[in-house]
Each structure stands twice: as structure tokens, then as C-alpha cells.
Specification:
This protein is α+β, with helices and mostly antiparallel strands. It has one helix spanning 3-184, and strands at 207-213, 217-220, 233-238, 241-251, 256-261, 272-274.
Length: 280
């Protein structure tokens, strides 16, 4: 036998021994790892079952996700539509706000105009108040003057009453003189009315007004300062109508007393008179 054969035989023996050892080791390890393998098989089975459950849950989750996605999409579409509507409302509100701003500006201008008008009215009111105050002062002055005039009128009325009394006294005195003359047997020249004749006065026209009237006497508003003298005749009229003739029997500074004769109508206060035959 050659060396190669010997080496081959030796190797074969070594391999046989190694195989035997390996078989022994594998048998020994097999007894040890078989329970572990079975446990692993059981774990693998349980894992497969868990995987099946997880797959079912994953499928359900995917289905739920798709449903939620569809719901979300629907909700998103609704929200988008609502957002679009809201934007439209916002646009309308913006237009309304712009209109309101225009109205506010217009109202601001009107307010300024009203304030200016109010200021002008206040100035007018102040002027009116000043005019009212001035008018009130004038009315007060007029009232005072009216009071003075009333007092003067009362004084004139008292004077007229006094003159009326004086006329009555003069009438009584004249009647007494007539009675005495008749008793004394004296004769007098009489006119058409049976009254003592008096010469007609001459001179410039003198115009007056009746201020008091007695039974057959009257007081005229002209006197010595106007050129009236006793015996002067005056024609008394009203509105151009002849009323009576008055012969002056007593003259004072600014008034005269006369006897009425040739009476055609009742003589009243404020009737006109002058020293001519025709009414003026």
C-alpha cells in the first residue's frame, strides 16, 4: 500500500470517528432542543393566530379608515361649501359695511351741517333775545308813558269835570243876571233865537275841538294864545255836517267856554269847530 492509500484510510477512519461523535452529539442535543422546537412551533402557531387577528384588525382598521376618510371627505365638502357660503356672506357683509360707512360719512356731513345750523340758530336766538330785551324795555317805557298819558287823561277828565261844573255855575250866574235884569226893567237887543246878540269875531281862521259839553254850553280846545276873544262865534260840525253855533263867553289861555245856539244836532266831545260859518 502506498502512502496515499494509508492517508486516505486514516482520513476515512478520522471522518468515521468524527461522524460518530457528531451523531452522538446530535442525538444528545436533539433530546434537548426538541421541547424547545415544539415550544417554538406552538409560539409560531400562536403568532400566526395573532397575525390572523392582527390582519383582521388591520382590515377592519382599513375599512374604518376608509369610512372615516369618506366621512371626512363628506364633512370636508360640507365644510368647504359652508366656508364658501360664509365667504359669500362675508362679502355681502363687506358690501353692507361699505354702504354703512358711506351712510356714516353722509351722516357725519349732515351732523356738521346741523351743528352749523344750530350755531346759526343760537346766534339768531341771541339776537332775538337781545331784540326781545330791547322790545321789553321799549314796552316798559311805553307802559310808563301810557301810565303818564293815562294820568294826564285822568287829569284832563278831572279838568273837564271842573269846567263842566264851571259852565253850570256860569249858566246859573247868567240866568241870575237875566232874572235881575228883567226885574230891573232893562231892555236888551235880541237876535232871531232870543239870546243876547254878540258881534261876530273877525280875524284868521281858528280851528279847535270840543273837549267838554254841558247843557247848552261847550268847551273848545283853543284859547287866548290862539287868538280867541269873548263874543267870537264858532261853527260846530261833525264829518262836514253842521251841528250848532257856539258864541264864546269865557276865554282862558288854552281853552274857551261858549254858549251853544242854533242847535240842529247834539254836540259831542271831539266834534270840530272853527270861527267861520261853513265847516272846514
Amino acid at each position: 500500500m502506498n502512502i496515499l492509500t494509508k492517508i486516505f484510510i486514516v482520513l476515512l477512519v478520522v471522518l468515521t470517528i468524527a461522524a460518530s461523535v457528531a451523531v452522538i452529539i446530535v442525538n444528545r442535543d436533539y433530546r434537548k432542543w426538541k421541547p424547545a422546537y415544539e415550544a417554538l412551533q406552538q409560539q409560531l402557531k400562536e403568532a400566526n393566530q395573532s397575525k390572523t387577528v392582527l390582519d383582521d384588525q388591520l382590515k377592519q382598521a382599513r375599512a374604518d379608515g376608509l369610512a372615516k376618510d369618506r366621512q371626512y371627505q363628506t364633512t370636508t365638502n360640507s365644510q368647504q361649501e359652508a366656508l364658501t357660503n360664509l365667504q359669500g356672506e362675508v362679502s355681502k357683509r363687506d358690501v353692507q359695511i361699505a354702504g354703512l360707512n358711506g351712510q356714516v360719512q353722509s351722516m357725519t356731513v349732515e351732523k356738521q351741517n346741523l351743528e352749523r345750523i344750530v350755531a346759526q340758530n343760537n346766534e339768531l336766538i341771541k339776537k332775538l333775545e337781545a331784540e326781545v330785551t330791547s322790545t321789553h324795555a321799549r314796552l316798559t317805557d311805553i307802559s310808563v308813558k301810557y301810565t303818564d298819558v293815562s294820568e294826564q287823561a285822568n287829569g284832563l277828565q278831572a279838568r273837564n269835570d271842573y269846567l263842566s261844573k264851571q259852565i253850570k255855575l256860569q249858566d246859573e250866574a247868567i240866568n241870575e243876571l237875566r232874572r235881575r235884569l228883567q226885574e230891573a226893567g232893562q231892555t236888551t237887543t235880541t237876535g232871531q233865537t232870543g239870546q243876547p246878540a254878540v258881534p261876530e269875531a273877525v280875524g284868521p281862521p281858528i280851528k279847535g275841538e270840543i273837549t267838554a259839553v254841558g247843557d247848552d254850553h261847550a268847551v273848545i280846545s283853543v284859547g287866548k294864545v290862539d287868538g280867541v276873544v269873548p263874543g267870537m262865534k264858532f261853527t260846530v260840525f261833525r264829518g262836514g255836517k253842521y251841528l250848532a253855533e257856539m258864541v264864546v263867553i269865557k276865554v282862558e289861555a288854552d281853552s274857551s267856554v261858549g254858549r251853544l245856539q242854533l242847535v240842529e244836532a247834539q254836540v259831542q266831545v271831539h266834534d270840530k269847530a272853527w270861527n267861520r260859518l261853513d265847516p272846514f
